[in-house]
Amino acid sequence: MKLWNLVWILLCVSAFGSEEEETFSLSDLSIASALALTSEIPQEAAILELEQRGQKRILFGNDMEKLEEEVIRLCRLLRVRADRRALRRKAVEKARAEKEYIELRSGRPPMFWIPLRVHAVWEKMEVKLACTVLASPPPQVTWYKNGVRIDPRLAPAGKYKIKNKFGMLTLHISRCSMEDSAEYSVEVKNQYGEAYSFATVLVRKYYGMESGFDSEIYRSESIIADFAFPLKPLFSREKEPFTLSCYFSSDLLEHQRDITWFRDGELLQNSECRELKYQDREASLTVSCAYKEDEGFYTIHVPSLDGYKEQTTYVFVKDAAAETAGAPGSPLNLKCHDVNKDCLILSWVAPSDNGGSPILGYYIERCVAGSEDWVPCNDKPVKTCRYPVLGLAEGQTYQFRVKAVNKEGISHPSKTSDPVTTYDPSKDKRVTVIPYDEGRTIEIFKDDLEGHIKIPLPPTNVHASEVREDYVALAWDEPDPRGREPLNYYVEKLIVGSNSWQMVNLDMPVNSPRFALFDLVKGKSYCFRVRSANKYGISEPSLPSEPVTAGVKLATLPPPSQVLAFRDTKTSVVLQWDKLKDGLEPLGYYIYCRETGTEEWQTVNNKPVTCNEFTVPGLQPGKEYVFCVKSVNEAGLSESSPETDPIVVRPAIACPSAPHGFVLLNCGKADMTIGWKPPKRKGGTKILGYFLDQHDTSELDWHEVNIQPIPQRVYTVSNLEEGHVYEFCARAMNMAGVGEVSEPSDLFKCEEWTMPEPGISHVKTT
């Protein structure tokens, strides 16, 4: 460090000091030492400088060490003080900003962030005027129509709805008529000021088809087709076709014909085995050959002005009749994972029907895509629903299928998997693409840069990726650098406790950094290592893996608990159950039912459902059933859950609909007798009573009239104000609960009726 740098640091330290803080300065000896060490000032000049001060001293080696330590200490102190000043400045700045924010919030006149906008609607449609206002404190809001204040209490019931939620002001006008064409405004004010926003609403009238373009717009906006009937559950069988149809009340408009179908939330498209079409007010989905994978919740979406309308139903696909009596159902959801150059891993889901005896295992078959020459992949049944397939050819396209087996026989094969092509997943990582010259690129292969590698290095990170009852799957990382030549791998195993390594795949070298061993002794622990090989030779062995115990059996999951059955309709029952706890995540659940008095359980669903609630349709009205549920995972099906209590299939009890048809039967000075009609839907049981509410139009709030339910449909409301105008609403109650609130009644004025009560006239005769 030069002298001037040292002096500058010391000056900075002195500048940061204060009266309360310690001041720092170098001793004359330190200055002289620093001067002597610089190439710019000779040592003699430095000593002469000290002689002039009368302080001539001799420099020693440890003096420079002390100087360096002093400078380092001062630099650290300088850094700490600089950090403190920076933090102090940030704190002051934050406090200032917080103070400004508090002052800004403490008081602010209203300001429209988003003002009202003009609307044009057709007659009998609704419109919503909306704006956003900023003000502190919250302002008072008043709406006007052509300068006249809007009071929802004086308008017909439900005509206007005014809301103010977090500064979002809305005015909702229902069933617009020509009289609603006007200029609407909103006034907001607080103690700091006021603001206004204006907008015009134009209501157009429909004059018929002869009116031209506007009539088409009116038809498009007001005469929109709707679903004619709800979708019903559909029952099909494997290898058979089915068609799911949805009917509409009228022809769909052009923009509504963009219909979409979903199965379990997945968008469906036209394919060789699936056809989607719309014709003659009917949207249909046809599957030419059903599999259990086609089972699930089907949803149709039809576009509308405010989004889309939808309906959902469930399609059941039963197992095809077994070729051998007592054979299990076919597996499903066959998928390929971890695809490499010469191997991959298959997974599937166990069938819901085991044929009456436990499933012993599964057989896997493969074929080259486009052929029907199926080749077995395993000699012994696999006990879990997962299996590594080895010995594949790189770049070849394969398809797979699985069969289940029990003591009675073998099931039908599963649905063929999607075609999958083997490839090197690390190939893209070994290519560097350099763009240049407006879209052109240069590709640099890492293999070309590693031509100096002859005998390869050993692999790294050898470990067991999967341990199952039937096999142990190994994985490792390729050596880096790998070299230009293609690599093969040889796997060696060692029984823990011995010193003898054995080559496992001498006759079948592996091309991918994956391998599976099947014939290990259950209960014994093994270590594994791998060697790399190319045409130049074979590498040293890799570091051994951690010990792995073979034959570890994968346990099935526990069954769900708290399975409850509830009445739904005259042919269906709703089931609910608790999901598994402790982080256990099943592939889904299978549901079973049987009629009381019988021993045979019937499978409800043949594809696992992932939810914990399901509606079981297709039951016999008036019959009594019990239900149970099983969890599904890779190891198979769990034990059955405890059976539900027997339940008779009957329509569910629901809350009643709202009462209607309010009338004024009698009126006094301070009381009114109100009557009404019963709900149109009683919810499957008798009405136990009614709750009545009243509203004085001169007030904002509604008030309860009775606390206990009124058993009859006539009630006298007392303690009213003479001359005031009232409206009423009611709710019905049954065993399921309190139903919907009714629409407000007509406005009734509280004034005593003076006309004589009707009755038999008495005429005096002579």
TrEMBL record:
PROSITE patterns: FN3, IG_LIKE. Residues 1-17 form the signal peptide. The keyword Repeat applies. Residues 330-425, 458-555, 559-652, 655-753 form the Fibronectin type-III domain. GO terms for cellular component: M band. InterPro entries: FN3_dom (IPR003961), FN3_sf (IPR036116), Ig-like_dom (IPR007110), Ig-like_dom_sf (IPR036179), Ig-like_fold (IPR013783), Ig_I-set (IPR013098), Ig_sub (IPR003599), Ig_sub2 (IPR003598). GO terms for biological process: sarcomere organization. It comes from the Eukaryota. Keywords: Immunoglobulin domain, Repeat, Signal. Residues 109-202, 238-299 form the Ig-like domain. This is Myomesin 3. The lineage of its organism: Eukaryota, Metazoa, Chordata, Craniata, Vertebrata.
